Amino acid sequence: MKKTKSKTQKNARPVSKASKSSPTARGAKNSAERATAPKTAGSDPKRVRAILQKLDEDYRDVTCALVHESPFQLLISTILSAQCTDERVNKVTKILFAKYRNPKDFAYASPAELEQDIRPTGFFRNKTKSILGASRKIVDEFGGEVPRTMDKLLTLPGVARKTANVVLGTAFGIAAGVVVDTHVTRLSNRLDLSRHTDPKKIEHDLMRVIPPEKWILFSHQLIWHGRKVCRARKPRCAECNLESLCYAKDKTV
Known about the structure:
Blueprint: H1 7-11, H2 17-20, H3 23-36, H4 45-59, H5 71-80, H6 86-99, H7 103-107, H8 111-118, H9 124-141, H10 150-153, H11 161-172, H12 182-190, H13 199-209, H14 215-228
Helix pairs in contact: 4-14, 5-11, 8-9, 12-14
């Protein structure tokens, strides 16, 4: 007996090759590939381990260069360090912390007077607002103590992820993320660990490839290496123990 096609089968439209590779399908496939594939060629686990080993050889015991005696002093110093060298901040805070000894002293300081006290660090008006606002919130809402969580730190005026990571990592030994400053940004790109310029995206890339137990030290290591060797304008590639692992376009060797 000859089989007859049902009406549904007869009228059904065959799926063309073009429909299988529609923009929507291709987009979903590409998104899945991007989610599983490494962000950069330089983030190969073996290469990352080699980079960490080299950094340990030269910067095993480095820490934050900002001079401080308490988490609160570190918070203030980090706010002041925006667009300013740590060396200059340390000169300013040596006098500043003798004058203002605790969060309450800063919270009730004269804005005009504080502006003059921190003027050498630049952007002193905005920094004064941040320092006063953060100090008042610490006094009024956190019992005079610097909070120990990322979420709470981010509620303080003038505090973004970089500042919060500095305080959590250096003052409390809490690895909540990776500090991304100008040095870390530059070196992460040169070492092909990230190809982003946005600090949040760079931090995400680094947190994906660097072991969590290395996040705190790794930030300090890149910052020190950026100051001493891998400088912005004239990197000292001949002196760099990472030279054999680096294929940056602006190498000087």
